[in-house]
Amino acid sequence: MKYFEARKARIEIIPMIDIMFFLLVFFIMITLHMIPNAGLATRLPSSSTAQTLPPTKVTVTLADDGTLSVDGRTLAPAQLTALLAGQGDPAHTAVTIAGAGAARLQYLVSTMDACRAAGVTQVALAAQPAAK
């Protein structure tokens, strides 16, 4: 009477592991998107000829009052020069200056001078595309 023998129940564990890994990846991705971007909120100037540049190594934020910040730390121009000079090869370091639209031109020139004093030759200015 093999037809009426009770079969042992099996719990398939492989699909359950797949689901657990999927949930783990899902929660990691959601958590990464919940972390706010580091930086200061600035209103960038607009430009009709703005181009998309590759990601840079250092982004310097220039506020309306002339304060400089890199990665959330407020720096003086001399400190910015020391920071850039201490990063490996300054000649190959790309710096983007994200200046506020209302920042004075003198603050921008001082920031560019601090970058040049460190030996940085690749300086870009961040801008928004102009509204059409």
Percentage of residues assigned to helices: 25-40%
Mean pLDDT: 80
Strand order of the largest sheet: 4-3-2-5-6
Could you say what the CATH topology of the largest domain is called?
Nucleotidyltransferase, domain 5
Shape: elongated
Q: In CATH, what is the class of the largest domain?
A: Alpha Beta
Please report the number of helical segments: 3
Quickly describe the structure.
This protein is an alpha/beta fold. The chain has helices spanning 14-34, 77-85, 105-117, and strands spanning 46-47, 58-62, 68-70, 73-75, 94-99, 122-125, 128-129. α2 packs parallel to α3 (105-117).
Tell me what you see in this structure.
Strand 3 (68-70) and strand 4 form a beta hairpin. The chain has a 5-stranded mixed beta sheet, covered by helices on one side. The protein has 132 residues and is of the alpha/beta class. Helices cover 33% and strands 19% of the residues. The protein folds into 2 domains: 2-34, no CATH class; 46-129, Nucleotidyltransferase, domain 5 (2-Layer Sandwich), CATH 3.30.420.270. It is built from 3 helices and 7 strands.
